[in-house]
Every structure is written in C-alpha cells, then in structure tokens.
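Project standup — Tuesday

K.O.: blocked on the structure for the chain from last sprint. Re-posting the sequence here as requested.
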Amino acid sequence: MVRTQIQLPDEIYARAKKVCEAREIPLAELARRGIEYILSVYTADTDTTREWRPPIPRRLGWKGLSDEEIKAEAQRTRSEEMTLRKKRR
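H.V.: unblocked you, prediction finished:
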C-alpha cells in the first residue's frame, strides 16, 4: 500500500469527518472508497496513442453576427459599454 497526502478545503474536511464518525471508519478508508467509486464510474482510456483534440465548437446563438462581431462584443470593456448606451439614448 502507498501512503499519500491530500489537501482538502476546511468545509469538505469537516463534512468528511462527520461521515467518518457516523460510519465509524477512518478518513483514509473514506478516501479509498471514494477513489474506488470514481475509478469504477470513469473507466481509463486505454488508447494512449490517440492524439487529443479539443471538441469542435458549436454555434449557440448570436444569430446574424459574424465571428469578428462576436469577438468584439465579448472584448468590449465596461467603459465602452457605458459610452454605447449613452449614444443609444
């Protein structure tokens, strides 16, 4: 068996300790069971020869705007937004 250390946020540690006390198991056993569960749900990808590629983006909205216009909208600063609102009035 291998020993290791983990870091937990205070809230998660406190919640885990309460579960351990209720089930009368050590924190190490809770961690082992949690890791075993995650490993059973998420099978390891055995094909390591495949090159990873990011997913192809989907168009989710902003109909009628070009990619350049969407980028400009996304990069607009707060002061630029306020100036545009004043002009629209």
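K.O.: great, moving the ticket to review. The CA atoms of residues 78 and 84 lie 10 Å apart. The mean pLDDT is 85.
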